[in-house]
C-alpha cells in the first residue's frame, strides 16, 4: 500500500497540472471543430477573428501571469483560472450568433492564459532537475491529447447531441480539475520583480523563434480540419485525420524527456524543427486519405517532441524566474495565434489551401536561426 501511495503522490502533480493545461488548450481547439456545426455558419475570416480574440486576451495577461505565478501558490492560480474558464465555455455554448462567440472567445483566452506559467512552476516544485525532462514529457502529452480528443470526440458530440454540448462538457471538466488543482504547491519568489529578464538575449531569441514556429502551429490547428473537408473527406474521417496529427504525439511527448537526457537539448530542437518543416510541406502534394494519415502522423510525432523541448529550454534559461520567463516567451508564442491565422486566412482566400502548406513550411524553417543562437547553461 505504501508503494501505491508513493506512486500516486509522485504522479498526482504532473497528472493534475497536465490535465489543467489540457483543458486550457482544448478550449481553444473546440472552435476549430464545432464552428463547422454551428447554425450561423462562420466563414474563414470569422474563424480567424475568433482565434485572434482568444489569443489577444490570452497574451494580454501573459507577463502578469508569469510574474504572479512566481509569487503565489500555483494550485490556487490554476484553480481560479479553471473556474472562470468553465464559465466562459458555458457561455460559448449558449451563443446564438458570431458576435456572442467573439465575446466568449475573448474572455475564454483571458481565463486560460494563467495556467501554463503556473503549471510549469508546479512541475519545477515537485520534480528534481534530473527527473524534470521526463515529467515535462508526461506533462506535454496534454498538447497532442487535446487534439486527439477534440478530433475524435467533438464531431460525434456535435452530430449526435449538439455542438453546444462540446462546450458544456468542457466546462464540467474545468470545474472538476479546479478542485483537484487547488492544493498544488509552487516555490514563492519574494524578491522584487526582475524586469531585466525582458532584455535577456536568450529570452528574446526563444520568444522570436517560438513566435514563428507557433504561427504555423496555430494556423494548421485552425485550418487543417477545414482543409480536409475542402478536399472532399467526410466529416468523421476528417476528424480522425485531425486527431491523427497528434495520436502518435502521445508517444513522442512521453519519450521526449529520455531523448533530452541522452542528447544535447539544442541539437535535438533544431533537428526536430527542420524535420517538421519538411513534413509540413507534404500535404500540399496529395489528396490521398491513406497518405495524408501517414504524413500527419509523422508531423505529430516530430511536433510533440518540439513542444516539451521548448518547455525544457524555458526552465533551463528561466532558473528562479521560470514563471516570468514563461510569461514573456508565451506572450510572443501566443501572439502568433493572432498573427498566424489572420495572415493565413488572407493567404488561403487569395491563393488557396495548396500554397498554405508551403507557406507554413517556410515559416517553420525561418525559426531555426533563432534557436541556433540560444546559449544554454547546464549548471
Automatic annotation (TrEMBL):
Domain Major facilitator superfamily (MFS) profile positions: 1-379
Stretches that traverse the bilayer: 12-31, 51-68, 77-96, 102-123, 135-159, 165-182, 203-225, 240-260, 267-285, 291-318, 330-349, 355-374
GO molecular function, one term: transmembrane transporter activity
Plastid as UniProt keyword: no
UniProt cross-references to PROSITE patterns, sorted A to Z: MFS
Superkingdom as given in the UniProt entry: Bacteria
One Pfam family, short name: MFS_1
InterPro entries (alphabetical): MFS, MFS-Transporter, MFS_dom, MFS_trans_sf
Keyword field: Membrane, Transmembrane, Transmembrane helix
Protein name according to UniProt: Putative transport protein
Taxonomic path: Bacteria, Pseudomonadati, Campylobacterota, Desulfurellia, Desulfurellales
Amino acid at each position: 500500500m505504501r508503494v501505491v501511495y508513493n506512486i500516486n503522490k509522485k504522479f498526482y502533480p504532473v497528472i493534475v497540472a497536465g490535465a489543467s493545461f489540457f483543458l486550457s488548450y482544448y478550449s481553444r481547439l473546440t472552435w476549430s471543430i464545432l464552428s463547422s456545426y454551428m447554425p450561423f455558419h462562420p466563414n474563414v475570416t470569422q474563424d480567424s477573428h475568433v482565434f485572434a480574440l482568444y489569443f489577444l486576451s490570452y497574451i494580454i495577461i501573459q507577463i502578469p501571469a508569469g510574474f504572479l505565478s512566481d509569487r503565489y501558490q500555483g494550485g490556487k492560480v490554476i484553480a481560479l483560472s479553471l473556474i472562470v474558464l468553465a464559465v466562459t465555455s458555458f457561455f460559448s455554448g449558449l451563443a446564438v450568433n458570431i458576435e456572442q462567440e467573439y465575446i466568449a472567445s475573448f474572455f475564454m483566452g483571458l481565463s486560460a492564459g494563467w495556467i501554463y506559467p503556473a503549471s510549469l512552476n508546479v512541475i519545477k516544485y515537485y520534480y528534481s532537475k534530473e527527473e524534470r525532462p521526463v515529467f515535462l514529457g508526461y506533462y506535454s502529452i496534454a498538447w497532442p491529447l487535446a487534439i486527439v480528443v477534440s478530433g475524435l470526440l467533438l464531431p460525434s458530440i456535435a452530430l449526435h447531441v449538439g455542438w453546444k454540448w462540446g462546450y458544456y462538457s468542457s466546462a464540467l471538466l474545468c470545474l472538476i480539475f479546479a478542485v483537484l488543482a487547488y492544493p498544488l504547491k509552487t516555490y514563492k519568489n519574494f524578491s522584487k520583480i526582475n524586469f531585466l529578464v525582458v532584455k535577456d538575449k536568450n529570452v528574446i531569441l526563444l520568444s522570436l523563434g517560438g513566435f514563428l514556429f507557433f504561427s504555423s502551429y496555430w494556423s494548421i490547428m485552425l485550418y487543417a480540419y477545414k482543409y480536409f473537408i475542402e478536399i472532399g473527406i467526410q466529416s468523421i474521417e476528417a476528424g480522425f485525420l485531425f486527431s491523427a496529427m497528434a495520436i502518435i504525439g502521445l508517444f513522442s511527448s512521453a519519450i521526449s524527456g529520455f531523448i533530452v537526457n541522452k542528447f544535447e537539448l539544442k541539437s535535438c530542437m533544431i533537428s526536430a524543427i527542420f524535420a517538421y518543416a519538411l513534413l509540413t510541406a507534404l500535404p500540399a502534394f496529395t489528396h490521398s486519405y491513406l497518405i495524408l494519415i501517414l504524413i500527419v502522423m509523422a508531423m505529430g510525432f516530430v511536433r510533440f517532441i518540439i513542444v516539451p523541448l521548448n518547455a525544457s529550454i524555458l526552465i533551463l534559461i528561466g532558473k528562479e524566474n521560470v514563471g516570468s520567463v514563461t510569461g514573456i516567451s508565451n506572450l510572443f508564442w501566443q501572439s502568433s495565434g493572432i498573427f498566424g491565422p489572420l495572415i493565413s486566412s488572407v493567404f488561403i482566400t487569395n491563393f488557396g489551401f495548396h500554397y498554405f502548406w508551403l507557406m507554413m513550411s517556410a515559416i517553420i524553417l525561418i525559426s531555426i536561426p533563432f534557436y541556433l543562437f540560444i546559449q544554454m547553461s547546464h549548471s
